[in-house]
Amino acid sequence: MVHPRVLRALSMPLIGHLDQAFLGVMNDIQTLLRGVFETNNRFTIAVSGTGSAGMEASIVNIVEPSDAVIVGVNGVFGTRWASAVERCGGKAIRVEAPWGQVIDPAAIEQALIRSGPVKAVAIVQAETSTGAWQPLEPIATLCRKHDALFLVDAVTSLGGIPVEVDRWGIDVCYSGTQKCLSCPPGLSPFTLSDRALTAIKARRSPCQSWYFDMTLIEDYWAEGTRAYHHTAPISMLYALREALRLVEEEGLPARFARHQLNSEALLAGLAQLGLLPLPQAGHRLPMLTCVTVPSHIPEAEIRMNLLSTYGIEIGGGLGPLKGKVWRIGLMGESSTEAHVLTLLNALEELFIRQGWLSTPGVALQAAARIYSRMAS
Questions:
Q1: Residue 15: which residues within 8 A CB-CB, separation 6 or more?
Q2: Average pLDDT for residues 289-296, to the nearest whole number?
Q3: Burial tier of 2 (Cβ tally within 10 Å: 0-12, 13-18, 19+)
Q4: Average per-residue pLDDT in the chain?
Q5: What is the pTM for the complete model shown?
Q6: How far out from the chain centre does Cα 39 lie?
Q7: Domain-by-domain residue ranges, the chain?
Q8: Using CA atoms, how far apart are residues 361 and 376, in angstroms rounded to an integer?
Q9: Distance separating alpha carbons of residues 321 and 284, to the nearest angstrom
Q10: For an engineered disulfide with 151, which of 117, 172, 236, 272 has Cβ 3.0 to 4.6 Å away?
Q11: Quick one: three-class SS letters along the chain?
């Protein structure tokens, strides 16, 4: 869902991307993004492109041929990141965990010790394909100890759970606008530490991508320079500024608490339907709930019925989890009590119709108890 204020911002009249008024919009976005990333990084921008553009930019700027990069692989997006490293001529050292589990910092440390000089460690904080929430602080400490840059994919997490770039020592972090920021897709919030910028400027060879070369983009976003690089997506940047204003007005602590409350209520209701979370306790994302689907339930058919009958869309499994899990998003504007109860009610009706549930209301009551407990 997108807030009406964001939709109105999309319809604002266009102006030139080097117009002084638009440069003011860019300044606002940088300030607001620093707040969401919890950073003072001077280089904090919105890359023109989706979250995958942020992933690409993170690698093409940091990785040169023969550079070793440790990549945590426990789902689709860790796998994609490793592929991007190899496409740049780098050596992707995969540290793997079963899908639905998190990467063990001890395994990262062993890879750092065994692999000699390592340019960077790349970790997905919120693995969208499994709903696993990866702790970052222990890995950040290891990166500093072994003089490796720390790269973090926060596409699904930014604005829904803490992403403390400065406190944790993250060097490169990117996200997407369409998840917890509740803005249409098309931009990738992106921040670089001074340490990362130094590494980029010390490259032995030019960045293989002209479009994502941050040494060029820096001059476009830098106040006082504003050198032409590319034509910015004006309307999308209007929308992002308004979406970030909404985040600031709510406040990050309140926003995080809202996501957590709705997630707990949803999980309580789903458990009554025999739908249990894939990730282990303590590592479950509040904005993306991934539950296993019992074998007797035709998961694709139920998802189709949810969409056609109730107008509710939930995601199926990806890769080895295809046909085995449901992925339910409660992100940003979509993270509401009404959405939780509407979904649970629809699932109850479908399950009763199929004879899989004999007691109506059990899922709704379980969720309601969570809301009542928090209200009191």
A1: 21, 22, 234
A2: 97
A3: buried
A4: 96
A5: 0.96
A6: 17
A7: 4-250, 252-375
A8: 22
A9: 16
A10: 172
A11: CCCHHHHHHHCCCCCCCCCHHHHHHHHHHHHHHHHHHCCCCCEEEEEECCHHHHHHHHHHHHCCCCCEEEEEECCHHHHHHHHHHHHCCCEEEEEECCCCCCCCHHHHHHHHHHCCCCCEEEEECEECCCCEECCCHHHHHHHHHCCCEEEEECCCCECCECCCHHHHCCCEEECCCCCCCCCCCCEEEEEECHHHHHHHHCCCCCCCCCCCCHHHHHHHHCCCCCCCCCCCCHHHHHHHHHHHHHHHHHCHHHHHHHHHHHHHHHHHHHHCCCCCECCCCCCECCCEEEEECCCCCCHHHHHHHHHHHHCCCCEECCHHHCCCEEEEECCHHHCCHHHHHHHHHHHHHHHHHHCCCCCCCHHHHHHHHHHHHHHC
pLDDT tens digits for range 329-339: 999 999 999 99
pLDDT tens per residue, range 145-157: 999 999 999 999 9
Rounded distance between C-alpha atoms, residue 122 and residue 293, angstroms: 31
**pLDDT tens string 19-78:** 888 889 999 999 999 999 999 999 999 999 999 999 999 999 999 999 999 999 999 999
> Measuring CA to CA, which residue among 160, 153, 170, 200 is closest to residue 53?
153
CATH 3.90.1150.10 for domain 252-375: yes
Contacts of 236 (CB under 8 A, 6+ apart): 10, 48, 177, 183, 184, 186, 187
Least-confidence region, from 129-138, 223-232, 249-258, 319-328: 223-232
Taking only the tens place, the pLDDT of each residue in 178-208 is 999 999 999 999 999 999 999 999 999 999 9
How many other CB atoms sit within 10 Å of the CB of residue 219? 13
pLDDT for 222 equals: 79
The whole-angstrom separation of Cα 362 and Cα 127 is 30
